[in-house]
Amino acid sequence: xxxxxxxxxxxxxxxxxxxxxxxxxxxxxxxxxxxxxxxxxxxxxxxxxxxxxxxxxxxxxxxxxxxxxxxxxxxxxxxxxxxxxxxxxxxxxxxxxxxxxxxxxxxxxxxxxxxxxxxxxxxxxxxxxxxxxxxxxxxxxxxxxxxxxxxxxxxxxxxxxxxxxxxxxxxxxxxxxxxxxxxxxxxxxxxxxxxxxxxxxxxxxxxxxxxxxxxxxxxxxxxxxxxxxxxxxxxxxxxxxxxxxxxxxxxxxxxxxxxxxxxxxxxxxxxxxxxxxxxxxxxxxxxxxxxxxxxxxxxxxxxxxxxxxxxxxxxxxxxxxxx
Length: 323
Hints:
By secondary structure, the protein is mostly helical. The protein contains 20 helices and no strands. α1 packs across α3. It is elongated.
């Protein structure tokens, strides 16, 4: 079973990069900016198409489209548009770097990006990070996190090669039973929990293999792996392991919850809102919308519309696609 693919943005059929580049140049040139045209074009093109527009723009006008957009736009609207213009792995690497730079680290961002993605996606992030920042992601994370949480994240980014190979190899029923027993023995079956075993299995195995392991776990234990993690483990490690489990079972529901949390309480966590909508649009945002409505009895669009305004709102709503 592969991850649910239900994009809201798929690109357009008769795509012409030079034409789009010219329209965008016109929208930014001279007095005032035509934001609506920028929204209409960039929220309906796929990332591959946007990269082609970017190249055509440089080729035709000798200018960097991202720099031009930055100088014309501002605020959270600019954040959405720049998120769309960067290649996905590069955008996520920038977000990882931002959450670790400066004072304090936003562990929730590390969890959101690293615990929810498949091995091939992580492999691309690891390669891109080193290319952009000239230091390994694992090394940077080690200096910003600690304890079992650090060990889990390090295992996730250092085991990607093996994990990606396993992903192609398919699932192994006998190994799943063995791993489920190990998890049971490391947690519920003993006094105190052996986090190392949880880390090793949840970081190393592919999503497909984990799905099988979790089913076997339920057969052995009588309760779900999620219940066990919540009962046995706490703090950041609990959040991280829970994210892996929930994304193995239903990634769109996990992202729906993440979006909901970003809009609850005082103020909106715009960084999360922008990142989740922009990065899931070509993957499973259609399914995220459905899960959101199922979980909260409200549409994602109505909640986003209530929390945002202006061009920022228009850009996010355009990425959500038709209701």
